[in-house]
Every structure is written in C-alpha cells, then in structure tokens.
C-alpha cells in the first residue's frame, strides 16, 4: 500500500453523498496501483477470465450441448461450484460474528476482509447460476414485478432473494464504513449496525436455503436428508475461515503489514469446532446410508464404492475424505498455532476437501443412478472447465480489487476501520 | 484527461491503455454472442407469459412461430391452442400383462411430438423388468434383443401428470403449471432453462433441449399445439402432455393409437363410462413411487 499517497478529498468540504462516486473512483485508482507481481497476477487472472468469457459466449451461441450434462445428470460443474461458493460466502461472515457479538476489537480491522470475501463469492455464485441457464437472455423472467416470480413455493426464488440481498447488505456495510473512514468521519450506527445484524442471520440463511434447494426434492433420496443444511453450514464454516486464513498469510507477505494474532487464533478455534462437527455429520450420513442398505443407498454406493462397474467419482470422494481427515487432524494439533506452513497446508486441504465434497461429491451423485435407476456418468466438458475457471478468476479479481481498495482507505486514514463504540 | 485528482503520470497512461486493451479483448472474447439477435427476435425476447397473452397477442405469437418453423425447418404448420374441456380430467393406465416392450409407443411419440431426430428420444421410457421384482434397479431401458423375453415384463414410464407435481412447485418462473384437465404443461417461450424441474421429477419425465432440434421437413408433424408438440426452442424444458392437441379434441394419445397390444387405456376420470374408469373399478391398480405423495394420474395394473 506504499502507493496510497494520492491526495484525498478534503474531509471537511466533501459532500457526503455527491462525493461517493469520487470515493469509488479514487479507490479504483488505488486498487489498480501495485508492483510487478500485482500486475502479473491481474494479467493472468484477466487472461483466464477472458478464456472463460469466450467459452461462455460459445455456450450461449451453440447451446448447452457444449456441456457434458444430460437429461440424466442435468446439473454439473456449474451448480457444484455455485453450491460451494455459497458456503464460502456464508463462511466469510465468521469474522463478523465475533467482532460484533463479542465486541472483539481486534477483529474490527480485519472483519472487512471477511465481508469482501463474501461479496466476491456471491458475485461468483450469481455468475455460476447464469452460466447454468439454458436461456440466459430470459433472466428477466426471474425479476419480481416484470417476470413471474414463483414465490414462496420455489426454493430457487428464495435463493435469488437471499443471495442478492446478502450481496447488497455486504456492499452497503463495507462501502459505508470505508467511505466514512475515507471522509475521516465517525460512522453513524443507525446507518450500518442494523445491517450488520441482518447480515449475520442472512449468512446462515443463504446456505440453509441453498441446502433446501436440494433436500426438498423427494425424488432424489441422496439429497432428501434433514442433515443437509446443517452439514452445509458446518463445512462452510470450515472452508470460509480457511480461505480467510490463507488470505491473511498472502496479505502479510505482500504488504509486509503484520496482522494481529488474535483474529488468526479465533478463526483456527472456529475451525477446530466446525471441522469436528462436519466430520461427525458425514459419519452419521454414511452410517444411515450403508447400515440399512436398500434402494436409497444406490447414490452413496456409487459415490463411495462405485455401482455396477461405474466409479468415476470414487477417487474424488476418497481424496476429499482424506483431505478432510488430515486437515482436521492438523487443525486439532497445536502445530497449526506454531507453524504457519502447517496452518496453510491444513487450510488448503480443508478448502479443497470441502470443494470436492460440497461440489461434485454432492451434486453429481444426486443424479446417479437416475430416478428410473439408470446409470449415466458425467465428466465436465472442456467448455465447462473453462467457464468455471473464468468465473473463479473473475472472483479473485473482484476480491483483489476490493481488498486493495479497503487497504488503501485504511492505510491513509488515522481512524480505526470500525468505530469502537458498538 | 485528468483522472480525478490523480496526476497524469506514466502510470495512469499505462492503466488507461491496459483498460482499453482489456475491453477490446473482452469484446473479442464474447463475439460469438453477436449471433443472438439473429436467433432471438425482439418480439420473442419481450414475449409475456402464456397466461398474460390476450387472444390478439396469441394470434401474433402463433403467426410468428409458424413463420419461424417455415424458415428454420421448411415446413408449413398450424399452431393451435386447444383449451381444457370443462369438467374433464384425464387419466392414463397401462396393462403390464399386455405390454411386450416393442417400443411402438416411443416411436409414435417421437414422430407425433416433433422430437429432435438426432437423439432418437421420446417422452416415454420402457423399462424391461425381471419377473418377480418391482425394483426399478433391476430394470433396463437400453435392451436391444427381441421382445418379449420369457423371464421379463415391460413397464413404460412417462409423465405421470401428478396431482401434486414437484416440477411445478420448484419452477422459479411459473413456466410450468397444471391445467384444469390434469395435464402439466410448459410454456416453452417462458422457460429459462434452469432444469430444476428435471431434478425434481421422480419419474425422469422431463427432457431438456440441449441441441437445436433438427427434423427433416417432410417428417414435421404440421398439426401443432402451442403448449404441446410444436418444435421446442433450444435451451428449454419439455415433457409429455398427453397429446393435448389431440385429446382435447376427442382423439386419443399417439402412443395409445400406436400400441399393437392394447396395453394402453386413456380417458376422462370424471366420466363413469370411460375406459379409464372401467380399469379403476375392475382392476387392482397401483401408481409408481406412491410414498412420495405426488399422486399420479397414471396407473398400472396386471390382468392376472
């Protein structure tokens, strides 16, 4: 953030509303300043995002036939990534709860990081949903008022509301707090504290509603379990904080600024609980699936052991299981507190483990075998990989820009990121 | 150009150049999208939900669709919009003792409903089941040997036109709904292609148009209904509609007419003298996956 020396608007003269676009423009200018490494990073991300954009344009022009999805497996890599990213977005709020619920002041300077992660993750979620639509130009049918919004019956309409609502909430909270700090003014509690509380409950709701999307389907026994929403939340509260811990390490390395140890310890302690709860719930599900046997076990059998010679997902899920168990062991050991390398390894394993388990390991086996018990396997096509990689790259670009903007504000301000009189 | 308080340095100039390059590359990357205006007309883009169309709107829409079919498939067709007959509620039954798995119903469905020829599909799947088992896991839909086999029986499955249809519940844009005569239909011009209904259906009864449908012009069935067998646009969902363009005019579904064994029975559940009511009164019928509470209007029975 050494380059954050551009003159700011003079605090006293600035008009609180008219200056906001100027603030955004200034932030964007700051966010696009950096060293060679930064430009290289953004260049690579841009290149991947462009490949994804091109693949998506080809998909829209030629239709969903460019994917490997079928009538049997009608949701694939896009919805798998969508489901996982909802979890990351919900997990981002894990920084907000301690900061506000327990008045933990040390969290205040880093809570913005969690919210920025949530914004980037939700943007990715929305893009993954758009990528999965057969007729994206008809998206306006989903807009309440001008389309026909099947609310409250369809869980998908609930998801549209909670995801967009969560995005707006986080944009408002981050935008307002950073702007006030930019103006060197004290934030007005009325303008953001109610929204912070709303966002805490909202974070839970986005992942619950996303789980209801699947567990409400009686015809898909693999998903039709009441444990799905709690399982989603538990793994989200592993994956989200794990990603934030990785971000801490990167920020510390890139900016040279020391991030306080408190938030790091707190996140590790959160993961220590949720990782165990998550494993316990996985064991419970596996037990009920396999101990009784019968037709309901077919999907689980396909996922873990293979079914009638079909076993495309077996290596994936066992990789995920191994990653989850090893990362749980590492998180529970004292090593994660002592060695940052161990912590990063544990976080990466947990993140990838959750990605496989909540993505391909959850969505695809729900369709195999099909409702008439036919087995049609699925592997994503190149187009699907390109589009997914493009969305990830775009998400990381958004995250990078948001983080750089907030750090530019924080490093040029004399005030703390959050008011302390909560 | 003074970029707000930032001195016009080499860095800002480079940034502007980078942004311009990036935008140009983005424009190039999404250039395949420029073909959309050719495929989707403004009228089609702005078309309202079926239930909001006036008779005049419908006339225009049908004319447009007929012209498009002429242009794209080289066939002259008439698109009609038969309404449910008041007081009629349709039911379908299959005599599993008679069905011998010959697949004539699937072929007839493919032709009647203008299915894309490339995928050889229909709204019906016939499961070859082992005698002595009702377990669909023992079934097979891809058999290619002579039928019937001695140790097998055959179970056709298509849309069950449920009274409590999960596909309708989950649709986020009300593109699919249940009509008064019990037929679940899709507005192919309103569906956004999210495939949630396909995930929700316990009977594998829905099909997605992954490809642009191709049908030789001389094979296009010109007798088309807006909510039934007209050629479906790519990227939308479709399903069995009990051939409503036929049945609402007093004719029988194409699959029933094609069945050489007489295994299929169709009729008005509200008419005490209909074939379907004779079956319900005299046979011990069952429905598929009754435990899911979908309440199908599609029944199965054995003669003996």
From TrEMBL, chain A:
Chief site of localization: membrane
Compartments where found: Cell membrane
Gene3D superfamilies: Formate dehydrogenase/DMSO reductase domain
GO cellular component, one term: plasma membrane
Topology relative to the membrane: Multi-pass membrane protein
Transmembrane segments: 36-58, 78-103, 110-131, 160-179, 191-214, 234-254, 266-287, 313-332, 339-356, 389-410
Entry keyword set: Cell membrane, Membrane, Transmembrane, Transmembrane helix
Keyword Cell membrane: yes
Keyword Transmembrane: yes
Protein family: Belongs to the NrfD family.
PANTHER family (UniProt xref): POLYSULPHIDE REDUCTASE NRFD, PTHR43044
Protein name: Polysulfide reductase, NrfD
């Amino acid at each position: 953030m050494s380059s954050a020396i551009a003159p700011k608007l003079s605090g006293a003269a600035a008009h609180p509303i008219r200056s906001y676009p100027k603030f955004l423009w200034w932030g964007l200018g700051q966010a696009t300043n950096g060293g060679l490494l930064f430009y290289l990073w953004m260049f690579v991300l841009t290149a991947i995002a462009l490949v994804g954009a091109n693949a998506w344009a080809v998909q829209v022009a030629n239709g969903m036939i460019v994917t490997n999805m079928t009538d049997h497996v009608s949701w694939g890599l896009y919805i798998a990534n969508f489901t996982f990213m909802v979890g990351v977005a919900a997990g981002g709020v894990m920084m907000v709860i301690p900061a506000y619920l327990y008045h933990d002041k040390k969290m205040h300077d880093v809570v913005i990081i969690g919210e920025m992660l949530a914004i980037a993750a939700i943007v990715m979620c929305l893009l993954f949903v758009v990528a999965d639509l057969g007729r994206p130009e008809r998206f306006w049918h989903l807009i309440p008022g001008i389309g026909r919004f099947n609310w409250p019956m369809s869980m998908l309409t609930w998801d549209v509301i909670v995801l967009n609502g969560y995005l707006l909430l986080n944009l408002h909270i981050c935008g307002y707090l950073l702007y006030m700090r930019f103006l060197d003014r004290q934030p007005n509690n009325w303008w953001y504290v109610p929204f912070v509380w709303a966002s805490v409950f909202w974070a839970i709701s986005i992942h619950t509603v996303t789980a209801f999307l699947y567990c409400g389907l009686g015809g898909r026994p693999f998903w039709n379990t009441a444990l799905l929403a709690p399982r989603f939340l538990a793994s989200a509260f592993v994956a989200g904080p794990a990603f934030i811990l990785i971000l801490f390490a990167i920020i510390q390395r890139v900016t040279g600024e020391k991030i306080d140890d408190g938030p790091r310890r707190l996140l590790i302690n959160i993961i220590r609980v949720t990782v165990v709860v998550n494993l316990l719930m996985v064991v419970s599900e596996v037990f009920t699936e396999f101990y009784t046997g019968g037709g309901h076990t077919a999907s689980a059998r396909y996922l873990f052991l293979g079914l009638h010679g079909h076993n495309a997902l077996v290596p994936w899920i066992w990789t995920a299981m191994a990653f989850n168990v090893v990362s749980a062991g590492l998180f529970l050991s004292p090593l994660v507190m002592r060695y940052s390398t161990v912590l990063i390894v544990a976080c990466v394993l947990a993140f990838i483990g959750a990605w496989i388990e909540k993505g391909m390991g959850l969505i695809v086996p729900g369709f195999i075998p099909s409702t008439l018990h036919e087995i049609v396997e699925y592997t994503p096509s190149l187009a699907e990989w390109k589009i997914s990689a493009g969305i990830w790259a775009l998400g990381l670009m958004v995250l990078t820009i948001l983080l750089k903007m907030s750090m530019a504000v924080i490093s040029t301000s004399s005030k703390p990121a959050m008011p302390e009189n909560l | 150009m003074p970029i707000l308080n930032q001195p016009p340095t080499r860095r800002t100039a480079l940034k502007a150049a980078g942004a311009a390059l990036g935008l140009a590359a983005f424009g190039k990357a999404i250039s395949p999208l420029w073909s959309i205006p050719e495929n989707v007309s403004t009228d089609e883009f702005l078309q309202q939900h079926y239930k909001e169309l006036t008779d005049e709107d419908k006339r225009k829409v049908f004319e447009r669709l007929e012209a498009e079919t002429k242009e794209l498939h080289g066939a002259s067709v008439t698109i009609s919009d038969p309404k449910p007959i008041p007081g009629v509620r349709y039911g379908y039954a299959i005599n599993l003792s008679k069905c011998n798995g010959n697949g004539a119903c699937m072929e007839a469905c493919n032709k009647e409903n203008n299915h894309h020829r490339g995928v050889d599909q229909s709204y019906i799947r016939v499961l070859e089941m082992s005698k002595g088992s009702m377990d669909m896991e023992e079934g097979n839909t891809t058999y290619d040997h002579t039928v019937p086999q001695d140790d097998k029986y055959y179970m056709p499955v298509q849309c069950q036109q449920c009274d409590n249809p999960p596909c309708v519940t989950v649709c986020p844009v009300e593109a699919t709904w249940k009509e008064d005569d019990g037929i679940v239909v899709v507005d192919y011009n309103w569906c956004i292609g999210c495939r949630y209904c396909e995930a929700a259906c316990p009977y594998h009864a829905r099909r997605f148009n992954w490809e642009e449908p191709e049908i030789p012009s001389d094979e296009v069935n010109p007798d088309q209904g807006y909510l039934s067998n007209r050629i479906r646009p790519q990227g939308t969902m479709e399903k069995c509609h009990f051939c409503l363009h036929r049945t609402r005019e007093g004719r029988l579904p194409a699959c029933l007419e094609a069945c050489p064994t007489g295994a299929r029975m169709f009729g008005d559940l509200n008419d005490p003298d209909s074939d379907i009511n004779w079956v319900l009164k005299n046979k011990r019928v069952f429905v598929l996956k009754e435990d899911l509470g979908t309440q199908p209007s599609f029944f199965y029975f054995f003669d003996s």
